[in-house]
Amino acid sequence: MNLEGDKRLNIQLRLDFSSAPKGEARQAGREDIEPLSVVNESERPANTHRIMEEVCERANLKEALRQVKSNKGSAGIDSMTVGQLEDYLKQHWLAIREKLLIGTYEPKPVRRVDIPKPDGGGVRKLGIPTVLDRFVQQAVMQVLQKRWNPTFSQHSYGFRPRRSAHHAVAQAQQYIAAGYSWVIDLDLEKFFDRVNHDKLMGQIAKRVEDKRLLKLIRAFLNAGVMENGLVSPSVEGTPQGGPLSPLLSNLVLDELDRELEYRGHRFVRYADDCNIYVRSERAGQRVMESITRFITQKLKLKVNEAKSAVARPQERKFLGFSFSAGPEIKRMIAPKSLERFKRRIREITRRAKGVSIKTTMEELATYMRGWRGYFGFCETPEVLIALTRWVRLRLRAALWRQWKTPRRRRAALIALGVAGELRNTAASGRGTWHLARSKALSIGLSNAYFKSLGLPTLIEAR
What we know:
By secondary structure, this protein is α+β, with helices and mostly antiparallel strands.
């Protein structure tokens, strides 16, 4: 494709991904916009030989830009921010599009970021692509997801439209309630780091004939990782952090899904978390052995034996949840999830000593609403009620420490409307946690007081 000519240069300068022109502006800009759409229309693919043209269609690009901007995220190795992307595309899109269509686009290495795991068990290595590479990956992912998603297993719930972790947990609950009361809990060791590139590309090639797209995906896989200023080659794995990685992970594990379906198992998979439900421990041990062999020999992946187990569902956690025993199976919040919640609340309330109550409340409210949006799916409201009470106690203790001296504590109690002898609590030598439960603080720092400051509860409607 030839990029010469004033008219195409004019298109490049005016190309706008953010919104479609309206009214007179739309008519005035028609000359600039239509050539791109005409090219797309004539090159619209009828099969998988020409998917790259579909990737470069205007509507797909606008949606990709919207997604990248809404996801925000850090800059890559070139330091370009999400906020700078749109202007960059307006100036350079035609050249980028040309490279995509002739198969010469070269991604930059990803920036390595280590994120501590929630359970404190080491770090999760993320690879942050540049914002431009994230945009291209998002555009590719959207096209491939439309084609591939209908072909994936009904037992796969992760990173798929109109499916969520809640759906996966509810399905697991149904299996247990139906009498499949033993679970094979599979943990794939460093799954995203161990994906074999050649095997993955072979699977993609079965679904995609467009050589340009195959070359582009291979380039993303081999882009390398920059860490401490040095670029290391990436010979295996799909770095977590890019929009394309979740879709590719589902493609890799679709082979596992098909094997489990072929064997007639009842299972639920969310990304690399896979639970298989059976009726007996003996059946569970047999399935664990055979599926581990399949994963190792066929998928070239490794099962983490230390974290995988055959057990009662009540003894394991799945996506942060566990399940009750007894005739009525209920969704419960797993003990580790509860501990993580308390650990985070402790961190926030410890800092309350040196910051304003408004700052503390804003941080607490953001975290608690997000946590409630996910774990409010449990069927044990009494746990949510108890946690909300515990958060208020933490706040009363934090404010008591913040007031420091008996004189300031007494003044604060008076200002909060605490009357009579209860004000004498200010001079008490009892411990902070004990006084957080006192009548004086229960009245002065009441539930209504915290609500007025914006503190949410964990039991309100999501």
